Amino acid sequence: MTETVDTTAALEAPVGTHAIWQSSTKVCRVTDFLPAPTADELLRRAASAAQDELLPARVRDNRLDTRMRSSLAHRGFSAPELLTAIDAVVGQVENVLGVSCSGTRPAFTLNVHNDGDFYRAHQDVSSHDVAKGVRAAKRVVTFVYYLHRTPAPFTGGDLRMYDSALPLNAEHDGLRREDCTYRDYAPDHNSVVFFLPSALHEVRPVSCPSGHYADSRFAINGWLCRTDAS
Question: Could you confirm whether the keyword Metal-binding appears in this record (predicted)?
């Protein structure tokens, strides 16, 4: 007996109405980035930072939003050794990420995550920033350098990088973060990651049982920024 197959539906809808195009987010990650004594000195300075220079970290438009972000930030922290090392690898970063860092300068803060701290999914640069010409739109590359006591006195705090995801069907009603695939990167001491500021990413919650400041997850988080943007 021959069975008749109706192919009408397939011809009318070759692509599912909820189809999502996924594209892997490019990340450059370097372990043992600085010579060990240099990394240890940076950690010593971070762990001894004056408490009155640490302020609650803020989000877009310099707003304080504890539902979105919980951590401390030190805007005046100095790390010339790190900037010199970044400058030495910037050419390789450009090749991998497909951008030019010519005419950029670094801007960064020391970020401190302790027990219960986090930073929910966000972008360092959005299409809104570019359209409005706001300061964040000058960011060309994001970098995050991690340092902490070893063995790590905390758990969690992974950097979660979400892949790009766009609906193939124009009638798709918005895109949810849950539609995106992702990869987690451990905040290993003396490691650094580079990625495009438009990438969706987050800091997973940190558990630090002691609660001691020196046991925190420290990160020097910054950007290579264009100097010619208004």
Answer: yes
